[in-house]
Specification:
By secondary structure, this protein is an alpha/beta fold. The chain has helices at residues 56-70, 78-87, 94-115, 143-155, 169-183, 206-216, 233-242, 256-264, 280-294, 306-316, 345-348, 377-380, and strands at 3-23, 26-42, 47-52, 130-139, 160-164, 188-192, 223-225, 247-249, 270-273, 297-300, 324-330, 355-357, 360-362, 389-393, 398-402. The chain has 2 domains: 3-117 and 394-402, Enolase-like, domain 1, CATH 3.30.390; 122-362, Enolase-like C-terminal domain (TIM Barrel, Alpha-Beta Barrel), CATH 3.20.20. 34% of the residues lie in helices and 24% in strands. α2 (78-87) packs antiparallel against α3.
Length: 413
């Protein structure tokens, strides 16, 4: 079976009106959400799909470097093709090497379909059929609004909710108090605190972070995510040793070595990774055995479409829930329920809805990914150039943009 075409499609889902959000150290504006899907065709008529980073740079890397390398090659062993790419075009192009790992998902999808097995059987072999989800939303609202959203996500059947604080130390603690009061003791609450170190002169210092963590511990949170700059592993070690709350980090680790340092030094309780942005299945399959050895747990970062969730889930079910414990499920607004903001493309990119049961995603057993991409989204959601979101920091005054890449700390890095 030979590869005949590799194509990447950029898509945009614009908002009717820009969303304006204010937080302790600045303001954020969101105008749209973007997505990419990758399509690999073969001479046998088998087609595979994968999500990719929704940026023009990513598309260029696929169009000009990865597609020419793959076109005409025999698809029998995706690992062997990756090794050849890393020895060739990817050797001196770190960005293209990471983008290749997204395309590789589509190669696995093709091969699994040709063999008549679920994709999970090619990347480790599934040991279960479901993975626990946490509903993710919560962006810069008054405390009572966070409590409303936590309750709404519980009503959808989820057993956990993650929010993003950034209202100031006291208000952040008050928010957690109100959420716990609203949802009761048996519902997990995650706090994604990455805003705390991105507010310039208002960023929380170590002492403030420790105080807030200590006070949030009273409300039994499941984890505190990225409360400190993610490259300061020593600071995470110190905070973890204090034992206030479980810690999570990983979505900003730039290399496999930095992941391994985070894991082997046991800087956190939950290691996180975005499969699409941080090295695909190869990096995940490298770090998961180390996570299992150290007795830590893994939680997928996923902040895009249902296709991204599906790709992560196929890997997640190859490990017991003691290792791959959680999969992030972004909760977008729908006509029936107002949540974070609308992103209809996220669901419409698949021809069938994901099967969610009692807060778990049921991973399909059909060949390949098990659900087909709906290619009509290409015409329905044409690409709109430019960033999907901007941040403006108050002090020092600075504005930066957000593109499709979740694994960098700032857009200009």
């Amino acid at each position: 079976m030979k590869i005949t075409h590799v194509r990447a499609f950029l898509l945009s889902s614009p908002f009717q009106q820009p969303l304006h959000l204010s937080y302790y150290g600045g303001d954020r504006v969101i105008t749209k959400r973007d997505a990419m899907f990758i399509r690999v065709e073969t001479d046998k008529g088998v087609v595979g799909f994968a999500p990719g980073q929704a940026s023009e740079r990513a598309k260029q890397a696929i169009d000009t470097t990865i597609a020419p390398f793959l076109t005409g090659r025999t698809l029998a062993d995706p690992d062997a093709l990756r090794i050849l790419f890393m020895q060739g075009p990817g050797k001196d192009d770190e960005y293209a090497a990471k983008m290749y790992c997204s395309v590789e998902v589509a190669l696995n999808d093709v091969l699994a379909k040709a063999l008549g097995v679920p994709l999970s059987e090619l990347i480790g072999g599934r040991v279960r059929d479901r993975i626990r989800l946490y509903g993710s939303g919560g962006m810069y609202m008054p405390p009572e609004k966070y409590a409303d959203e936590a309750e709404a996500i519980a009503e959808l059947g989820f057993r956990a909710y993650k929010m993003r604080p950034g209202l100031g130390p006291d208000q952040d603690v008050e928010t957690v108090r109100r959420m716990r009061e609203r949802v009761g003791p048996d519902f997990d609450l995650m706090v994604d605190a990455h805003t705390w170190w991105r507010m310039g002169d208002k960023s929380y210092d170590q002492k403030t972070v420790e105080r807030v963590a200590r006070e949030m511990a009273e409300f039994d949170i499941a984890w505190l995510e990225e409360p400190l700059p993610p490259d300061d592993h020593a600071a995470y070690q110190h905070l973890k040793q204090e034992g206030y709350v479980p810690l999570a980090s990983g979505e900003h680790e730039a290399t496999d070595d930095s992941f391994l340092d985070l894991i082997l030094e046991e800087c956190v309780d939950y290691v996180q990774m975005d499969v699409i942005c941080q090295g695909g299945y190869p990096t995940a399959r490298r770090i998961l055995p180390e996570i299992a050895k150290t007795g830590l747990a893994f939680a997928f970062h996923s902040w895009g479409t249902a296709l991204e969730l599906l790709v992560a889930a196929h890997l997640g079910v190859c490990w017991p829930e003691t290792v791959t414990a959680w999969l992030e499920y972004p909760c977008y607004s729908t006509p029936e329920k107002e949540l974070m903001y609308p992103f209809p493309l996220a669901a419409e990119i698949l021809k069938e809805p994901l099967d969610v049961d009692q807060g778990d995603l049921i991973v399909p057993r059909k060949p390949g990914l098990g659900i087909e991409v709906d290619e009509s989204v290409i015409d329905k959601y044409p690409w709109i150039p430019g960033p999907w979101s901007t941040f403006t920091m108050h002090s020092p005054r600075q504005t930066w943009a957000v593109t499709g890449d979740h694994s960098v700390r700032w857009a200009d890095q």
